[in-house]
Automatic annotation (TrEMBL):
It comes from the Bacteria. Belongs to the LysR transcriptional regulatory family. Keywords: Coiled coil, DNA-binding, Transcription, Transcription regulation. CDD domains: PBP2_CysL_like (cd08420). This is LysR family transcriptional regulator. Residues 68-95 form a coiled coil. The keyword Ion transport does not apply. The keyword Ubl conjugation does not apply.
Amino acid sequence: MSIENLKVFVTVAEQQHFSRAAEVLHLSQPGVSSHIRNLENEFGAKLLHRSPKQVKLTEAGTVLYKQAKQILAYYEEARQRIQQLQQQVTGTLHVGASFTIGEYVLPRLLAEYVDLYPMVDVQVQIGNTEEIVRGVRSHQLDIGLVEGQIPFADMATEPFMQDEMVVVSPVGHTLTQAARKRSRPSIAAEALHDQVWIVREAGSGTRDYSDRLLQKLGLRVKRMFVFGSSQGVKEAVMAGLGIAVLSRWVVRKELAAGELAELRLEGRHEARTFSIVRSREAVESMAAAMFLHKVKETGSADPTVG
C-alpha cells in the first residue's frame, strides 16, 4: 500500500470531488482516478460512490478513511522526527591525531566542538603520524589530523593549518651564547654542523621533518638521541642533552619563559602543513562533517601557528 495512494484517497473523500482533489494535489484527474483504482484493487472493495456532481464514501471507504487519516498522521510524525534527528548532530566520532596536534591543538578545538554538539560521543586516539594513518585506513578512526606526509592514494588529504618549525637549544648552549653576542641573533645553517640532535622516533611527522631538514642543509650529525614523544624531546633539550627541531606549538611557553632558546637560521623560515586525512571509501556522518568544519575554521583563524 502506497502512502501516496492514501493521500489521494483522503483528499478525494474530503473534497468529495475528483477534479477538486486533482487541483489540491496538483495532479491530473486521470492520475487521481488511477490512485483510487489501485486502492480498490488492493482491498478488493469499492471505496467510493461516483456521480457527476459529487463523490461519497462507501461503507468500506468510510472504514479506510478513518484508518488512513491515522496512518498519514503517524507517517507525518515519523517524517518530522527523522528530519529532526538528521538535523541534530549525534552519534560517535573517532578522531586520531599525531602527537603535536593531539597534545597542543586538539584539546582547545575539541572543547569548542563538544560545547556546540554535546550529544556527540568523541573518542580520541593520539599516536605518531604512521599510527594515525593506519587507523584511518582500517576504518578504526573516522578522521585523522597529522603533520607528516601521506603517500597513500586511498586517503583523502586536505591541509588545514601551517605549523612553524623552530630549532631549539638549551639556554646555556654555545650556539645560543654566540648568537647573543652578535649584533644579529640569527646564525648560519653551517653552524649546526657536528651537533648532538634530539629527535622523535621513526614514523613520527616531526622525525620525518627533522630528517629532511638535516638532509636539505647537508649537516653532519655528531650524535642522535631518539625519544618517543615531543615532550620527551623538549625535556631532553632543556636538560642540556642537545638541540632539536620542534613545532612552535610544543615550545612556545618554554621560549616565552626563557627555559629554552631559539636558534634562528639566517634567511630561512621553516614550516610544515597540518593535514586532515580520511578514507576515500568512508561515508561521512553529520558529526564528522561538523568536526571537519570546526577544524578548518580553527585553521583559518590561526594560520601562522604560534
